Amino acid sequence: MKNKNKLLDKCESMTLLCTKASTYWSFVKFCFAVPLVLTSSAMCIINSISEDANSVKIPNIVVNAVSVLIMSLNNSIKASEKFEIFKKLSQQFMFLSQELENIDGEDLDAQKYDIIMLKYDNLIQDCSFEEIPSKFKEQVCKLYSDNNRYVPIQLNGTAGNMIKRNSGGVSGLAGLEGIELSSQIV
């Protein structure tokens, strides 16, 4: 039962983290879409204003250059792809959480636990933690550790956090900045 609850906590924390990352990348995607709409509208207006093509040649070049720059940045950042990946991961972690919640404690045998753990491990491997802003990792770590719940190892330590543990579970969050690593951290 303890392993089930630990895995459930981790799945729920990853659902929240991936949802936050999905929202972030959706906003980035939107921030690239708006200037592209504006530059396209500007091209339409510039070309409609003048009957002489030579008089709008320089404004056309400038607006086209800005459009190409925005599209190049958008393609290199790949905000749309990241949004879709984190949205999908969020849904998959949610489904895994629901699967765990629907299992009664005595119904979870070792084979079923191993299958669920394999699903969890595969989802964790698909998650690009480096593409998630640190503030979201820290928020999720703090939220879960403040409530004595487990977080994935990828959020504890690699996100620049160190969570003190006691025999009963998680006991608190402390940033690494300014903390001496000593026997206090177990």
What order do the SSEs take from the amino end to the carboxyl end, as H and E? HHHHHEE
N-end to C-end Cα span: 24 Å
Instruction: Kindly state the number of beta strands.
Output: 2
The low-confidence runs, each spanning 5 or more residues with pLDDT under 50, are: 165-186
Strand content: 5-15%
Helical stretch tally: 5
Number of domains: 1
Task: Chart the SSEs and their pairings.
Layout: H1 2-49, H2 57-77, H3 79-101, H4 110-126, H5 134-146, E1 161-166, E2 169-175
Antiparallel strand pairs: 1-2
Explain what the structure shows.
It is a single chain. With 186 residues, the protein is mainly alpha-helical. It has one domain. It is built from five helices and two strands. It has helices spanning 2-49, 57-77, 79-101, 110-126, 134-146, and strands at residues 161-166, 169-175. β1 (161-166) and β2 form a beta hairpin. The two termini are 24 Å apart. Mean pLDDT is 81; it is low at 165-186.
